[in-house]
Amino acid sequence: MIKNNIKVYNSLTNKVEDFVPLKENEISMYVCGPTVYNHMHIGNARPVIFFDTVKRFFEYIGYKVTMVSNFTDIDDKIIKKAIEENTTEEQISEKYIQAYLDACDKIGCCKDVIHPRVTENINEIIDFINRLIQTSHAYQNGDDVYFDVNNISEYGVLSNQKLEKLESGSRVDINQNKKNPADFTLWKKTNDIGKKWPSPFGLGRPGWHTECVVMIDKIFGSKIDIHGGGNDLKFPHHENEIAQSIALHQHMIANYWIHNARIDLSGEKMSKSLGNVIWLKDIITKYPPQAYRLFVLSNHYRQTINYTDELMQKMAIEWEKFANTYRSLYRKIELSNVSFNGQVIDLMNDFLKEMAFDFNTANALSVLYTLQKKINKDLRNKECTLDELKDDFKTLQDMFSIFGLYVLIDPLTEKEKTLVANWQLARENKDFATADMLRAKITEMGIKL
Ligand SMILES: [Zn+2]
């Protein structure tokens, strides 16, 4: 059974491990969400698509998945943008939360995902910091409250770094008020123009690293199965999340830490501050959203993808071929006026096996290609029974649903849509000769009007 045979590469141990969930038929999953001061670029969308596919796979094999992904709706970047655009931080974050949800909807993501916001969890964050101070894991010095990394023997466990190295390295900022340069800010006291809250440590704002730990506490109440995010979050963000959890709960938040690699642009790291980014909203306007999903899923999630227009165009063509196979099969069954109920064929098991071995979407995609070839052959084969075609269709639907492709399919091609629109127009204009001619053409193509 696939369910008892799942392997996951755990970033915490750097090993492929057997996946055993905490509860028998449920999975708890948390993926760090965006700081909402701008649109998503295609690199930001990679974890969104990948973890959505992981969720779909788990649901397909019978798990109930609770997935949480936060919105960081308070941050210096949001304040800066609000000043620039002469508006409020709420308006900026609301605008980009909506933009994020719209984009997710278009790429078939975020269905049933819980999205807590920092500004709705300030009391819980303050309470959490208070407990860290009471247990001597945090201290206030100067204006700010810091986490004391020296009190945690496991600090560096995720990113495989030794504290001594961090102390002398340049990756942590030097601050006179910190006991150790690796100590990180939990609360920042401030009197600036940005949004701030009263607290026992003074008027201010929480640091970034506490929100996820607090939200996981609040929503799940204990240790979870999977904590995910992009590789770039490993250090310091996830390391610091783990440190806080060890301090108060003596565990590492999740049994499995899963990190996806980045998407580069012409061999270089994409960065909003450098300006070399491609926005997701532009890509899914130019190409079908499914083509972008295929682009992401055609690579193993732990492999860096190098984005090029050529590669994206290729995926758009591949998607169109898949969609055409789907449409042809759909019409063949639809025209025979029988039910669509079929059974999955053996290839489905191959597909699930690839997904079960560390979510190898690249290999699963090659099974999908094999299925496509088989279907196209079956469609040409006059001997092929309707029952066989129905089984093909059911299998294609199921693979599409795990990859998040099926829900987004348009039953007609652009050319066909134009034809139908012209037929409607001719009817409205009472040009029955043209309407009849178009109708015959449309019916011949296997489209039901
Ligand atoms: Zn986080």
Task: Give a written overview of the molecule.
It is a single chain. This protein folds into three domains: 2-280, Rossmann fold (3-Layer(aba) Sandwich), CATH 3.40.50.620; 308-408, Four Helix Bundle (Hemerythrin (Met), subunit A) (Up-down Bundle), CATH 1.20.120; 414-444. 47% of the residues lie in helices and 13% in strands. The chain has helices spanning 42-60, 76-84, 89-106, 122-134, 163-168, 211-220, 234-249, 280-286, 289-297, 309-335, 346-356, 361-380, 386-403, 414-428, 432-444; strands at 7-10, 15-18, 26-31, 64-68, 138-141, 144-147, 184-189, 204-206, 224-230, 254-260, 263-265, 268-269, 305-307. Helix 12 (361-380) runs antiparallel to helix 13. The radius of gyration is 26 Å and the shape is elongated. The two termini are 43 Å apart. Zinc ion binds at residues 32, 212, 237, 241.
Which small compounds were modeled alongside the protein? Answer: zinc ion
Q: Strand count, sense and closure of the main sheet?
A: 4 strands, parallel
> According to CATH, what is the class of the largest domain?
Alpha Beta
The secondary structure category is alpha/beta
Strand order across the biggest sheet?
A: 4-3-9-10
The total number of structural domains is 3
Strand fraction equals: 5-15%
Mean pLDDT: 93
**CATH-assigned fold name of the largest domain:** Rossmann fold
CATH homolog superfamily of the largest domain: HUPs
Shape: elongated
